[in-house]
Amino acid sequence: MINKGMRQLLIWMLGFMLIAGIYNSLKSSQAQKDIPYSEFKSSLKSGKVAKVEVSADLIHGEMVDKDGKKINFRTIPLADANLVKDMEEAGVKDFSGAPDRSWMTSVLLNIGWILIFVLVWWFIFFRQAQMGGKQAMSFGKSKARQQDLKKNKVTFKDVAGCEESKEELKDIVDYLKNPKKYKTLGGTLPKGVLLYGPPGTGKTLLARAVAGEAGVEFFTSSGSEFVEMFVGVGASRVRDLFERAKRNAPAIIFIDELDAVGRHRFAGIGGGHDEREQTLNQLLVELDGFESKEGIILMAATNRPDVLDPALLRPGRFDRRINVPVPDIKGRLEILKVHARKVIMDEGINMEVLAQRTPGFVGADLANIINESAIIAAKKDKKKVEFEDLEEAIEKMIAGPQRRTRVISEKEKKIVAYHESGHAIVAKMLKDCDPVHKVTIIPRGPALGYTMQLPKEDRYLTSKTEILSRLSVLLAGRAAEEVIFGEVTTGAHDDLSKATAYAQKMVTEFGMSEKVGPISLKKDESEVFLGRDIIRQPGYSNETYRNIDEEVKRIVNDAYFKAKNILIENKRILDKLASTLMEKETVDGSEIDQIIQNLNVA
Ligand code: ADP
Ligand code: MG
Ligand code: ZN
């Protein structure tokens, strides 16, 4: 568009204009003396003015100054009806009018400014476009890169430690490989696949692996590329991206960091970001507009599925949602092995020990450790990476600023293991509890560990006994801490607030307290908008409120002691489960049964 010669010409022009401007202003200020109107008038009266030319916004002429020298002067005229009369009386020989400082000049001046403005803009754009390696006029084109699959092919073999996620992606691969098979049967596949999980767990890698496995075109772009400063650019980029993919079907479109465009609309103060909203709308239109039969799958990844706009998650859009979790000890071992293939390692290295020492580390961290260890070994002029290099790399990583929050000390790990074991064992021991699916001490979000219970069937009614059991399970984490360490930590605060909320509901909503009776004190939440003064609580006596408080306290305390007693009675099981957890990090329901059985037989 703009070649080098043209650009040089523009620079010359700008320079010339600048110099001309400076010269002009210098010249005029040198030659002409600016004087106040009063001085002009007094000079006129004392007969020193020889020549005057008057225009609407300027008077200039010749006069003799105090030292008797002839000078050119300039002054701003005032509304002076007597000027002509005064000039006649003073005997000015030569006075005349001039057209309003030549409209031509002012037009030219304005055009000059506009020109400069346009040129500056042009340069900014030009630079920007150059940096993007693109032409200035291709704003609306998607920046999506088309991956050359033959060059660096990623397959499922390169991704480890997330077997379940891989399993779920396999039928997507199968579909992309032979879409005909699916076409003839007439079934529709999900057209949108959303990978979610903490940063560095391998979401981007998995998406590339799907393309690699299926051997189809892979268009990758990042959500932030769609959020430009100009409204409409993002939307047209989305359109362009889908068009390119359609021309190359079968293909995968991958949008990394989907949350950059897909954030909940109206979430910000003062309404949505217009550009982002348009982009999101365009994305939704495209998602609805193509059939998976066309051989296109849209994949996206995000660390923040919680902030996504609900519209994206509606049926028919990102139907397949795949969690890519933080790896457990077994997963970490697999990931370490994958990356160890890329460097020369001492054969004697025990990778299992490394996996043990890196709780909470994600794939990206582990890849980093291996890489770092190779650098450390190279610095020492070694031929192979040795165990001590890996140890050094781990230490370096743990000490790193962003890691500190995620690293769990051995002591904390023990506390978390007992806490979670407490939940799991009480859930196992109490009847009416949902079966324990698995227990893990791998941190997820703010939680340091969790116990996952899955209901056997959908249920719409819950009995009082069931709620009480649930309360005991919730409080069992804290109870375990108390039984084992004689002390409690802050780790249970979420359990406590949940338990308290449950107990409150029992008393005030479900009428499950004999002392308070079968009444509901529930506030109608739809009236919250009316403001506090309007929704008056119905007039319950202070005594009722006191009873409620007492009842809630009693229920929570009872449930807590129940949990504590169960744990004291089953302390051997608690110890065993906690130590198993420390070792394996994740223990599933059947393994817990096994532990209980073994200890009961012994
Ligand atoms: P995410 O997109 O989830 O933030 P990435 O896919 O960008 O994570 O991971 C960054 C790098 O970390 C990858 O290129 C790979 O080298 C390594 N990595 C992450 N997860 C895994 C894994 N599960 N298996 C093997 N390597 C992984
Ligand atoms: Mg990523
Ligand atoms: Zn807990």
If you had to describe this structure to a student in words, what would you say it looks like?
With 602 residues, this protein is α/β, with parallel strands linked by helices. It has 20 helices and 14 strands. The protein has helices at residues 4-31, 37-45, 83-90, 103-131, 163-177, 179-185, 203-214, 233-247, 259-262, 274-289, 329-340, 351-356, 363-379, 387-399, 410-429, 464-485, 493-508, 542-569, 571-584, 589-601; strands at 32-34, 49-54, 59-64, 70-75, 94-97, 145-146, 192-196, 217-222, 251-256, 296-302, 320-323, 436-440, 450-453, 586-588. A six-stranded mixed sheet has the order 6-8-9-10-7-11, sandwiched between helices. A five-stranded mixed sheet has the order 1-4-3-2-5. Strand 8 (217-222), helix 8 and strand 9 form a beta-alpha-beta unit. Helix 11 crosses helix 13 (363-379), helix 16 packs across helix 18 (542-569) and helix 17 crosses helix 18. The model is unreliable at 132-137, 267-272 and 525-536 (pLDDT under 50). The structure holds adenosine-5'-diphosphate, magnesium ion and zinc ion. Residues 203-204, 256, 301 line the site of magnesium ion.
> Care to count the β-strands?
14
- Report how far apart the termini are: 84 Å
Structural class from helices and strands? alpha/beta
Q: What number is the mean pLDDT?
A: 80
Instruction: Count up the helices.
Output: 20
Strand order of the largest sheet: 6-8-9-10-7-11
Percent of residues in helices comes to 40-55%
User: Ligands in the structure?
Assistant: adenosine-5'-diphosphate, magnesium ion, zinc ion
Shape: elongated
Strand fraction band?
Answer: 5-15%
Task: Identify the quaternary structure here.
Answer: single chain
Poorly predicted residue ranges: 132-137, 267-272, 525-536
Question: Any idea what the radius of gyration is?
Answer: 39 Å
Describe the largest sheet: 6 strands, mixed
